[in-house]
Write a structure and sequence with these properties.
Shape: globular
Largest sheet: 8 strands, parallel
Distance between the termini: 7 Å
Helix content: 25-40%
Radius of gyration: 16 Å
Number of strands: 8
Structural class: alpha/beta
Number of helices: 8
Strand order of the largest sheet: 1-8-7-6-5-4-3-2
Amino acid sequence: MIKLSPSILAADPLNLGKAAQMAHAAGCDELHFDVMDGHFVPNLTFGPHILKAMKKQTPDIVYDVHLMLTDPITFVDSYAEAGADIITVHAEANDWLDAARKIRALGLKAGVSLKPGTPADALMGCVQLFDRVLLMTVEPGFGGQKLMPDVLVKAKQLREMGFTGDIEADGGISPSNMTLLTEAGVEVLVMGTGFFKAEDPMAVAKAVHAL
């Protein structure tokens, strides 16, 4: 079954707890929690205290924490303690392999993300260290961008490299293009405005699960 991981970045910032509860009630598999440092990407988002509060209020959903940080290893412990279930680091960041090993040592699932311009073979020789690979289908930093379909070839390339974990995609994903992604081999869809701004978010979740 295809999984849906709504991006909390697209929710009403004054009602993040309610947004998490709504996503869970709608049947979403995960909640995507974007962390940006204003340096690796030109935006600032959520600290671990926000995650901790959301985890306390809605503990039964999987928290998929995406660290868009220059030095992710510095923050792995903080987000793990706050309640992350999956932590994804970027292959373009500093010490990303050491950060991934630290994530696994803490008993969490480790992910790695590739920006649109980073080839799949950047993971050659280390791909089995990860439980999932997150393909950025836009330049990370802001929501509302248009999906770059050329990025999706990386899903096939990852399988050819022997990767057996989840392939996730993030950026510009909506009900109108989600079939394109799943046909390319993507198994976890990160959806921001396409979910939280939908007239019927539950119907979006059902449509994803029916793919």
